[in-house]
Request: fold
Amino acid sequence: MTCLVRCRVPAKKLDLVLFGATGFTGRQTLMHLARHVPPGFKWAIAGRNRDKLEALLPLCNDSATQPEIRVADSTDQQSVDKLVASTRAITQLAGPYGQSGESFVAAAAAQGTHYVDLTGEIGWVAQMIARHADVAVASKAKIISICGFEALPFDIAALLIATRLKKATGERAQLIEVINRFTGPPAFRPRDVLSGGTMGSIIAMLEDGAGATLNDPAVLVDDAALAERIRDFGRYDFRARYSNDVDAWLAPTVPAPFVNPPVVYRTMSALAGSKSSPFAAECRYTEALSTRGMAPFAIGQRVVAETLARSFTAMAKSVDRNGTVDQLGRTAIKQLMDWFGPKPGQGPSDKHLEQSGYTMHMKATSASGETAIGHATALGHPGYRSTAMLIAEAGLLLAGAGAEGCAALPRRYGFLTPASAFGAGSVPAWARAGLVFRFEA
Reply:
């Protein structure tokens, strides 16, 4: 499905296309777009089934402009090329991406169309970079994957807290720590905090032989020498631990502690060598999940943390050099999914969809020990509601219709991360999506 030549196409008629609008997350994304597209904005919803798309139009009755309908099939490269060529930017929500996502990436790279998706399949992203990066840079396309709850809030948080430290002290961050906590009603059912689509991406990644990414925080870093250093100082540690900073037991980030770090390290590598970079040459990034609220008592929270730690440690140890997961690893994965992961088609209760959210505690430390501390709060279920609002805002930014107060996008092209693509000046967009950052004096 790789485009070998750049297609000759007419001028782009649309500002933004939302592909995959008929799914649960797609509908949530559509509703956010309908509330915030500006007058005169030209956009479309797209998918395989026209009838299902037309059934969504009532959700846009109060929109400043009504979306058009476009029919395309991700398995038909010609139809994808035509769709991508018609728009300035495309938001692609139809996964698993490893099965049919390359058609869109190849077309966007060839056509100079900005692209954003929700994949958590790190191995697939690495493959797309290897195959299409040069074409995307040449066409000045911005290709941004992993742009929902994974990994946008964490990537932006790392950039913002490091920038805060540099502005306050003049020193670059040597260590970034982010601790995530789910908020809202007690999450005693796994599906109340996770989406089936995210867990499906993890399973697809492992089944495709991309399990080696479980142990490689530098899998997305282009600079080979820097990647080797990151593998040394940034190696994963999935052990449970207690944090005095947040007064809670910490577990590896769920649903996957090996998705966000490669994105953050790619951001750091993109800024390396720049005088404006807030990151030290060998800045280490760590993240964890606070288990507060995931069990009724401290002892229960410790059990949750240690159970998750054992599962992810066993999973990581079970991967051989070829990225294949052995029987022990498959057993650990099955136990984790059975205990913690939602089944396909399952979702949160209405109560959790409306009342859930998450927070982040951010800390940057310089080589001399100077620190900066910040916090973030987010509204909406992380895997469904927050993700939908975040990627909707990402699409609007790429289409030139970001929230009021957003700075111009950095002039970078090719395969970018949320932070390297949108920069610190994108904060108003995330606030409109319910994700608000603040910093201690």
Summary: Residues 148 and 387 are 4 Å apart (CA to CA). The first strand starts at residue 14 and ends at 19.
